[in-house]
Every structure is written in C-alpha cells, then in structure tokens.
TrEMBL record, chain A:
SUPFAM superfamilies on file: P-loop containing nucleoside triphosphate hydrolases
Taxonomy, superkingdom: Bacteria
PANTHER family in the record: ENERGY-COUPLING FACTOR TRANSPORTER ATP-BINDING PROTEIN ECFA1 (PTHR43553:SF24), HEAVY METAL TRANSPORTER (PTHR43553)
GO molecular function: ATP binding
Residues covered by the ABC transporter domain: 5-241
Protein family per UniProt: Belongs to the ABC transporter superfamily.
Protein name: Energy-coupling factor ABC transporter ATP-binding protein
Subcellular location: Cell membrane
Keywords: ATP-binding, Cell membrane, Membrane, Nucleotide-binding, Translocase, Transport
Native organism: Lactiplantibacillus modestisalitolerans
TrEMBL record, chain B:
Tagged with keyword Transport: yes
This protein's UniProt keywords: Cell membrane, Membrane, Transmembrane, Transmembrane helix, Transport
Keyword Disulfide bond recorded: no
Source domain of life: Bacteria
Membrane topology term: Multi-pass membrane protein
Cellular location(s): Cell membrane
A Pfam family matched in the record: CbiQ
Oligomeric and partner information: Forms a stable energy-coupling factor (ECF) transporter complex composed of 2 membrane-embedded substrate-binding proteins (S component), 2 ATP-binding proteins (A component) and 2 transmembrane proteins (T component).
Name this polypeptide is given: Energy-coupling factor transporter transmembrane protein EcfT
Record PANTHER family: PROTEIN ABCI12, CHLOROPLASTIC (PTHR33514:SF13)
Coiled coil: none
Annotated TM spans: 28-61, 73-96, 108-130, 150-169, 247-264
Gene this protein is translated from: ecfT
Function: Transmembrane (T) component of an energy-coupling factor (ECF) ABC-transporter complex. Unlike classic ABC transporters this ECF transporter provides the energy necessary to transport a number of different substrates.
Organism whose genome encodes this protein: Lactiplantibacillus modestisalitolerans
Amino acid sequence: MSPIIDVEHLNYRYPQQAADQLTLTDISFSVAPGEWVAVVGHNGSGKSTLAKNLNGLLAPESGTITVAGQVLSAETVWDVRRQIGMVFQNPDNQFVGATVEDDVAFSLENQGIPRDEMLTRVAQALKQVNMQDFATREPARLSGGQKQRVALAGMIAARPRILILDEATSMLDPQGRAEVLQTIRAMKANSELTVLSITHDIDEAASANRILVINDGHLEEAGTPAEIFAHGEALINLGLDMPYAERLKAALKRQGVQVPTSYLTEKGMADWLWQLRSNK
Amino acid sequence: MMSKLIFGRFIPGNSVIHRMDPRAKLLLSFYFIGIIFIANNWPTYVVLFAFTFAAIALSGVKWSFFINGVKPLIWLILFTVILQVLFSSGGGQVYWKWGIITISQFGLINGVYIFCRFVLIIFMSTLLTLTTPPLELSDAIEYILMPLKAVRFPVYEVALMLSIALRFVPTLMDETEKIMNAQRARGVDFGEGNIFQQMRAVVPLLIPLFVSSFNRAEDLATAMEARGYQGGEGRSKFRVLKWHNRDTWATVIFVILTGVLVYLRA
C-alpha cells in the first residue's frame, strides 16, 4: 500500500536563522494509511516545526512532502489541508467559534458545505466526543479537556484522513488527557484514520504503532514502542518519560534484582514478577 | 468589579422579546431612539413610557437590572439636566435670574424632557442587550452592514473580528484576573496611592496582557489556517437568522406608535 504521508529529505530553516542553522535537517519518513505514529523529542528539537511543514503552514527550504498522493506546493496546499486535521496545544487559543457548535462548524463553513449537511455532521461529531449536551455553551464555561474534545469534534465533522496532534494533551490534567486519547481511539476505530501525534506523554507514545525520535532537527531513530522503550533510562535524554514498567525495573535493578533487558508492558512485567517469585 | 457591569450583559430567557429576530430588535431599538425626538409634550412622553414599560414587562427581566443600568450614568444625566435648566433663556415665566443664569418655566420643562429622553434611551438599549446574546447581535450587525459590500467594505472580516472579540472577552477577563493576582503575590498594589502610583501599578498588568494577546492571536491564526480558513468568500454559514411573524408584528406596532406620536405632538 502506498504511504499516506511521505517526506523526503526535508530541510527547514526559520527566516531569521543563519544559513548553516537548520531547524530540520534531512528528515525522511513515511506513514502508512491507518497507522498511529508518535513523534517524540526534546523541547526545541523541531517536532512542531515538522507538523507545520506537513500541512503547509510553513514552507520547507528543500525536500518534498507528499500527502495522500499530492505533492505539497502553493497550488495544492488547500487540498492538502483538507486531508489533515490539526489539534494544537492550547485549548483556549484554537477555539474560533463563539459557542461549541460554531467551533465544530468552522471547518465546514470554510469548505462551503451546505447548512443542512452541516447541522447533521455537527450533531454527529458532538455525539461522538460525548459533548452533545454542551452544544450551545461558550468556551469560557468549558474545562480544558472539554475544549480539546470540541477541537476533535471539529476534526471529526471535517472528516480528514490524517489527524495531527501537536502536543494536544500537554496542557491537560491526567483525566482530561485520558478522555482525549479515548476519543481519538474511538475515532480511529470508526474510520481509517492516520494519526501523527507529537507528544511528551508516555501513554500516548505507548499506544502508537511506531515512534519517531527527533533530536536537534535530525530523525534520530524510528521504531516500535517496544524497541524505543527498551532504551530504559536513556529515554529521558530523548525527551520522553520512562514507562511505569521501566521505572519499576530500574528500581529493582538498584535493589540488586536481575531484570530482563528487553521492554516489557505492564502486563508482561506482572507476569515476569509472578514467575520470579514462584521459581524460588 | 466586572460583574457589576449591567450594560452589555445578557440575561437568558424565553419571552417573546428574547425570541425576536436580533436584526428586528437592533433596528427597532435604533428606530425607537430616533422617534423619541418626535415627542415634545406630556401626552407623547406618557405614551413612550407606557410603551417602554410594556416592552420591559413583556421581556420578563427584573426591573432592578434597568434601574442598575441607569445608575452609573445618573451623574451625567443630572449634569446635562442642570445645565439645561440653568442656561436656557426665555420662554414662559422667569422664576429666578442672576447674570447669565436663568431659571425659567421653559428651562425646567426642557430639563425634565431631557431626563425622560435619557431614561427612555437607556431602558430601551438595556432591554436590547439584556434580551439578545452578543453573538446574535454580531450576526445582526453583519447582516445590516451587508449593503456596504457594494462599496468594498470588508463585511465578513469585520463580522469575524467582532465575533472573535466577543468570544475572547471572558478569556481575557480571566487572564487579567490571573495576572493581577500573580502580580499582587509579588507585591504590586493595585488601586493604592496617588494617581501616578496607580498608573505605574497598571504597567505590570498591561504589558503581559498585550504580549499574551499577541501570542494568542498568532496561535489562533495558525489554527484557523490549518482548518482551511481562506477569507470570507465562498464560506457557508452555520448560523442563520430567521424573520418570524412576531418580528413583522413588532414592526407594525412601531409604525402605529410613530403615528400616535405624530398625532399627539404639539
């Protein structure tokens, strides 16, 4: 199957930067349809810049970006944006509409969709994120997690094929974060959606199919969560927290317990601990 | 501090006036302010007050809101009335005269008329804002400005700015409160000392507020562009305004009112 996102030798530099300082250097990767890819890295490693390059909010210095078969250029940029839904970090600053339903309808209004269809799509989308009771509420009366769910409803209504989460859960409390991730999983289950999430959150990265590690504008490594999490304590240097199982392993190691070096999920860890005690 | 501000607030309700089309309400309120100036004797003012009170009763909004709406402006009203009373010359019986200051029958009656006009205008505009959500008002303004498109006035853009501004008012209020408290925690005294000290204390509030507004604007513009906003042309609209029978009836009532006023005026 041909990839839905294909990036080749992408270089990007902000206008105020010197010629030899690139924010993104020679990035190449591709994402298959329906895949969930997490992009991780330090603050300032270029993750958000990469996301903005993908839908043409920033124009690369060199390299090609192909989204759903279309090469990104000045002519195709609006078609490409229609394929990509983006949810940003700050729930307050991306809420365009004066009420919840207005905000969900904003993308549809931009596409010139007739009002009758808008009404059904907005109602459907709000139901899917479980915000139907809040349709006429104003953003000032919603919590952060609710605002991000409204942002997601806006994406559901616009029906993009790709969803980019640019640290969409980083300003939420653990409960709001869980709600938003739950909603995205439900969205993915209902349609073949490709998700690219830029994140520092370990749970979000762990639920991905693949993780791309970006360091100082280079693509440092790409692999499955199991491969990446096997780095153990080196994860902290990559801008990621350690998963609970890894932290437990590190603590056991300090107590002198022989632990397996490969990555274990929480369930795998529980099984291993179970066996460890019963072998004695 | 801000919660005491009545002007521009909206009280949810389900009266006939609440359900009227915002365009009708906005235009008729302006029209009402215009026809107040037709009135020039007691019967006409009695009719206008009766009409205003009937509208207020119909809206089901508490009277105290209207009284509170007049309160902040009472000094301005009294100042104007007193000027009118003291400096209007001639007409009717002169009660008292000292230099250029004259208190005459004519002046006193005019002063009372001006007081009535102020109260009527404030009551009617308060009724408009109390019964119409700000968002509907901005829709109504967009619709009313539509003819200006012919002279290349950017109606969509102005309407968008208006609705974004309205949407960010509570967000920015919250932020102001937060910055004020943060600065208080660091030892800034707001509202203390003489006028210069008070003005100086506002700086650590205003600058962060401006900077954060710039950042918000940047983020919002990015989000809007990512969601396919290419300007006003070719957009469809989610919210539509509907003109009902009640709006036609309200217009008819206003026309009758105008007729009565013209008939009764001296």
